[in-house]
Design brief:
Helix content: 10-25%
Radius of gyration: 28 Å
Distance between the termini: 43 Å
C-alpha cells in the first residue's frame, strides 16, 4: 500500500525496509541498511537527495527530531540498501525511522510514514537461561508443550520474547496464537548455527498475570543429523519488558518451566523417502489453550539439556505462512474403507480433514503423493499421517510440524465418504513479496510460465529452495543454480537467499571443499555446479536486488572453494575430485532426457570446466565491486587461461563441435566466451542443425543445461529457436508435462519420482527477459538501469510483463500489429530504462513524438508509449 503521506507534486514513499524486511523485530546486525520506494504521478521524477531520521521514540520523529541519527540532507539518488551511520545500536534496541526525499525541483521534501525495527540478541552473552525440552522417560518428547506464567507490570511499554528453538515452534499467549507464522524458524546447519526469532507480545499481553505456551516440533532436529543431541526438540527463551528506556528480563528458559505431551508425534526419520508425517492422538488434544484447559493435563518439570556451543543468529528472512487454500476436485472410493482425494493440483503444505463420526481409538491413515501410478494408486513417496480418534463427535486432523508435497490423499480406515467441504489443503511458503507476472497471446506459453511460477512457490519453504518437498527437501546447489535467475526475476527473494547463503557459508570445510547441499545433513549427490552455488547465487542476488551483503560476507569462502578447485586441477582443467562422507558423485549435466548421455566423460569434464570458468569470471566482477583490484586481475587471468585450455581440449574443428556435441556441450562454451567470435556462427549452426535433425526440434538438456540454454538464447536473441522447442507437445518438453497432468514441473522429463521439483525451472527467466523484454544491467544492480528489448517469436502478438524491482513495479506491455511494435512502459522512480532497438530500426515514436535512434536511448521514470516498425 502507498503511504498516506502526499505532497503537492504527487510523490509518495512506500515499502520502507530495514535489511530488506518490513518492520522487522530482532535483526541480526547493529548497523542496518534502509530501503524505500517512490511513487510519482508525473514523468521524469528523480530523487536528488534524501534525509533519514532515526529515533528511539516515534514522538521525536513526529516533530522532526532524533536521538540516534539525523543523516542531514544527503545529495544522492540512492534508495536501496542505504547504510545506517548513527549512534551505535545495541542488542534489544527498538528503533523508529522515516525518510524524506527531494526531487529535481529541490522543493520541500516528501516524508514517509514511520517504520520500525529492533535489534535481536547478537552475542552469546546476551542470552540467559538454558536449552530445555521434554524430560526423557516421562512420555514422548517429539512435540511437547512448554508452559510458563509471568507477570507484567503497569510500567511495561514493550514485551518481547526472544526464542531460539532447535526444531519448529509456535507461540501462544493467554490461549491465543502469536502471529501467523508456521513451520518456524527457517533452516540452518545445526552443528554450526541455530536461528532465533523475536516476537513482540505487546499487543496480546495483559497487565498482571500472563500464560505463555511454546509448542515444539522436531523438524530437521532429528536424531542422527549433525548437531542433534536430544531425542526431541529444544528451545532457549528469554522474555523481556521495556520500561523507562531499559529492558528487564522477566523469565528465561530453565527447569521451572512445565512440560506436557501435546498429542502430536512424528512419523519418519526425516531422511529421503522417509519424511513421513505426524501421528495425532486426538484423545490427548486440548480443546483450547486456556488456563483451565491446560490445568487438565499432567505437567512435568522441563529438562535442561546441554547443547554443544554453536552460533545463535536472529532469523533474517520472512517466516513461512499459509498463502492459499485449495479444495478437492473429487473423492473416489478405492475399497470399502479407503478413499482417494484429488486436490486438483500439486502443492506444498498442510492437509486438513474433518471426519465423520469416529469410534474411540479408531485409526485413520493418510497417505500423500503428488501423482498416481498407472494402476491409479498414489505413487509411494513415504508421506504418511495417522489420526487416532477421540470418539467425541466432530474430529478434525490438521498438520502442525510436518508438511507434504501432494495432490492426492489416500484415506484408509474410514467407512463412510468424507465431506468434500471438510477437506482443505494449505499452500505454504516463505512470506516473500513482489511477485512478478507474465502473460502473452499464446496460451501454451502462459501455461508453461504459470507452472514454473507456481512450482517455485511450492519450493521456497523455510528460507531456502528445496529440490522437492516430499522426497528429499534438500537445498541442492545445482537445483539452486538451475533456478536462481528465474526465481529472483519472479519473486523478491533477497532475505531468503541471505538465509540460504548463511547455511552455505557454514558448510564449507577447512580445506575449502563444499558439499552439494546446504544445510548439509548427510551425503548427497552432485558436482562442481552444485558446490560453486555460493559464488553464482551471491552474485545474482547482488545483481537482481542491489544487495551487496552476500558478496561482501562470503567472499573469503568463495576464494577458499576456488583454491580447492585449483588443487584438483591438472594442466589448468579441473579433474574429478574424491567422494567424501558429506558429498558424492561428480556430475556434469543431470536429469537429461532419454538419448542424451549425461555420464559421458567428455561432456562431464567440459560442463564442469565451463562452470569453473564462469566462477572465475564472476569472481572477477565481485572483486571489482569490492575494490579488490589485484584479485580482479588474477581472476581475469585465470578465466582467460581456462577459456583457452577448454577450447584446446574440447573443440572439434572438423565438426565445429565440442565434446559429445550435445546441446549443453555446444552452448556452454559459447555462453562462457570460450568459443572465438569467428567460430561462434558455425557452432551455432551445428547446434541448430543437431537440434532439428537428431532431436526433432526438442529440448535435449537437463538440470544444468536448461539455465545455460536459456541464458545463451536470451543473449544471442535466439527466441525463435527456444519457442519452437517449447511448443513441442511430445516427449521431452514442458507441454508434454502439462499434457500428462502436471501442475508443477517434474524431476525428470519422463515423470519419474517427483512431480514438484526444481530441475527444469530455469526457463522461467526467458519469458521476462526475452519475450517480455526486461533485462537488468548488472553494472547498475537492482534494476537501477534496465534494458528494454522484446524478442518476439513468430506466433506471439502481444505480451504483458511486470517485474517488482527494488525501486517499484516495472511494466512492459507490447503488441505487434501489422509490423508495428507498440509498447506501454511504466518505469519506477530511481530506475532508468535503455531502449535497445533492432539494428534495422533507425527511428521510433516516444509518447507520440518522432525520435532518432541514438546511443543509449534512455527513458526516465513514468509512463511512456514507444512505437516502431519492425523490418
Amino acid at each position: 500500500m502507498l503511504s498516506a503521506c502526499a505532497s503537492s507534486n504527487s510523490v509518495t514513499l512506500y515499502d520502507l525496509r530495514c535489511e530488506n524486511l518490513n518492520n522487522p523485530t530482532g535483526i541480526a546486525v547493529s548497523v542496518p541498511h534502509f530501503s524505500w520506494k517512490i511513487a510519482a504521478q508525473d514523468n521524469g521524477m528523480k530523487q536528488t537527495a534524501y534525509q533519514i531520521l532515526v529515533a528511539s521514540d516515534p514522538s521525536l520523529l513526529a516533530v522532526g527530531k532524533t536521538d540516534l541519527w539525523n543523516s542531514g540532507k544527503i545529495q544522492s539518488a540512492d534508495s536501496v540498501m542505504v547504510l545506517y551511520r548513527g549512534k551505535e545500536l545495541q542488542a534489544r534496541s527498538h528503533v523508529y525511522w522515516k525518510v524524506g526525499v527531494w526531487d529535481e525541483t529541490n522543493k520541500e521534501p516528501v516524508w514517509s510514514d514511520v517504520s520500525s525495527f529492533s535489534v535481536g540478541l547478537l552475542a552469546a552473552s546476551d542470552w540467559s537461561g538454558a536449552y530445555i525440552g521434554f524430560p526423557s522417560g516421562a512420555g514422548n518428547p517429539e512435540s511437547p508443550l512448554l508452559r510458563k506464567a509471568f507477570d507484567v507490570g503497569a510500567s511495561a511499554e514493550k514485551v518481547f520474547l526472544h526464542l531460539n528453538s532447535l526444531g519448529y515452534h509456535e507461540i501462544y499467549l493467554n490461549g491465543a496464537k502469536v502471529g501467523t507464522a508456521v513451520l518456524s524458524p527457517a533452516v540452518s546447519q545445526f552443528n554450526k548455527r541455530s536461528l532465533a526469532v523475536t516476537y513482540d507480545l505487546t499487543p496480546q499481553v495483559k497487565k498482571g498475570n500472563n500464560e505463555l505456551l511454546v509448542w515444539l516440533g522436531r523438524g530437521w532436529y532429528h536424531p542422527g543429523l549433525p548437531g542433534v543431541v536430544y531425542n526431541g526438540p529444544l528451545m532457549k527463551a528469554q522474555l523481556e519488558t521495556l520500561s523507562a528506556g531499559k529492558w528487564n528480563t522477566v523469565a528465561v528458559s530453565d527447569a521451572s518451566w512445565k512440560c506436557a505431551e501435546s498429542g502430536y508425534t512424528g512419523i519418519g526419520t526425516w531422511k529421503p523417502w522417509e519424511f513421513g508425517g505426524e501421528r495425532v492422538d486426538a484423545g490427548k488434544l486440548l480443546d483450547d489453550f486456556s488456563t483451565e484447559s491446560l490445568n487438565t493435563v499432567t505437567w512435568h518439570p522441563a529438562a535442561e539439556v546441554k547443547v554443544p556451543d554453536h552460533t545463535v543468529t536472529p532469523m533474517m528472512t520472512e517466516p513461512n505462512r499459509i498463502q492459499a487454500t485449495v479444495e478437492p476436485v473429487s473423492i473416489s472410493r478405492l475399497n470399502e474403507n479407503t478413499w482417494l482425494v484429488n486436490m486438483g493440483k500439486a502443492l506444498t503444505g498442510y492437509a486438513e480433514i474433518k471426519f465423520p463420526a469416529l469410534k474411540e481409538k479408531q485409526e485413520i491413515i493418510l497417505e500423500y503423493s503428488d501423482h498416481l501410478e498407472a494402476n491409479g494408486n498414489p505413487f509411494g513417496q513415504g508421506q504418511k499421517d495417522r489420526y487416532v480418534a477421540s470418539g467425541k463427535g466432530s474430529e478434525v486432523f490438521r498438520n502442525k510440524f510436518n508438511y507434504h508435497g501432494f495432490q492426492y490423499i489416500k484415506i484408509s480406515g474410514l467407512e463412510s465418504q468424507p465431506d468434500p467441504a471438510g477437506i482443505k489443503a494449505y499452500l505454504i511458503h516463505t512470506d516473500y513479496k513482489g511477485m512478478s507476472s507474465f502473460q502473452c497471446s499464446d496460451p501454451e506459453m502462459n501455461a508453461i510460465h504459470d507452472m514454473i511460477h507456481y512450482t517455485l512457490r511450492c519450493l521456497s519453504l523455510g528460507g531456502y529452495l528445496v529440490d522437492c518437498p516430499q522426497i528429499e527437501r534438500l537445498g541442492y546447489g545445482g537445483d539452486g543454480n538451475a533456478s536462481t535467475q528465474a526465481a529472483q526475476v519472479m519473486f523478491d527473494l533477497s532475505p531468503l537467499y541471505a538465509n540460504w547463503m548463511q547455511a552455505w557459508g557454514d558448510c564449507i570445510r577447512e580445506d575449502g571443499s563444499m558439499p552439494h547441499t546446504a544445510p548439509n545433513p548427510y551425503r548427497a549427490g552432485g558436482g562442481p555446479y552444485w558446490c560453486g552455488f555460493i559464488i553464482t547465487a551471491s552474485w545474482k542476488t547482488y545483481v537482481n536486488y542491489g544487495d551487496a551483503r552476500l558478496i561482501e560476507t562470503y567472499y573469503p569462502e568463495m576464494q577458499q572453494w576456488l583454491g580447492y578447485v585449483e588443487k584438483h586441477s591438472v594442466d589448468g582443467l579441473l579433474q574429478k575430485w574424491p567422494d567424501v562422507d558429506y558429498r558424492w558423485w561428480y556430475l556434469g549435466d543431470w536429469a537429461t532426457p532419454t538419448g542424451v548421455d549425461q555420464t559421458a566423460q567428455a561432456s562431464v569434464d567440459l560442463v564442469n570446466n565451463c562452470f569453473v570458468s564462469e566462477c572465475y569470471a564472476t569472481m572477477e566482477k565481485i572483486a571489482k565491486v569490492l575494490d579488490k583490484t589485484d584479485d580482479a586481475k588474477r581472476y581475469a587471468e585465470r578465466k582467460e587461461q581456462m577459456r583457452q585450455r577448454i577450447q584446446e581440449r574440447f573443440f572439434d574443428s572438423a565438426k565445429n563441435s565440442y565434446a559429445t556435441g550435445s546441446q549443453i556441450d555446444l552452448i556452454y562454451p559459447m555462453l562462457e566466451q570460450v568459443t572465438p567470435s569467428t567460430l561462434a556462427p558455425e557452432v551455432t549452426k551445428t547446434l541448430f542443425r543437431m537440434t532439428e535433425q537428431e532431436k526433432k526440434g526438442h529440448l535435449a538438456v537437463g538440470l544444468v543445461g536448461v539455465p545455460v540454454l536459456t541464458e545463451w538464447a536470451t543473449r544471442s536473441r535466439s527466441s525463435e529457436w527456444v519457442y519452437g522447442m517449447l511448443k513441442k507437445k511430445d516427449y521431452p518438453g514442458y507441454l508434454y508435462m502439462l499434457e500428462n497432468g502436471a501442475t508443477a514441473t517434474w524431476e525428470h522429463w519422463n515423470g519419474q519420482r517427483s512431480w514438484i521439483h526444481n530441475c527444469y525451472n530455469g526457463i522461467g527467466s526467458w519469458f521476462y527477459e526475452a519475450v517480455g523484454g526486461i533485462r537488468s544491467d548488472e553494472n547498475f544492480p537492482g534494476y537501477k538501469k534496465v534494458i528494454i528489448s522484446p524478442q518476439i517469436p513468430s506466433g506471439i502478438t502481444w505480451a504483458k510483463t511486470s517485474k517488482e524491482t527494488p525501486y517499484g513495479l516495472l511494466t512492459v506491455n507490447w503488441t505487434l500489429e501489422q509490423g508495428v511494435l507498440a509498447m506501454d512502459l511504466i518505469i519506477p522512480p530511481g530506475c532508468t530504462a535503455v531502449l535497445e532497438l533492432p539494428e534495422a530500426v533507425s527511428e521510433y515514436e516516444w509518447n507520440g513524438k518522432p525520435c532518432q535512434k541514438s546511443a543509449g536511448n534512455e527513458i526516465g521514470s513514468g509512463t511512456h508509449k514507444i512505437a516502431y516498425r519492425l523490418q
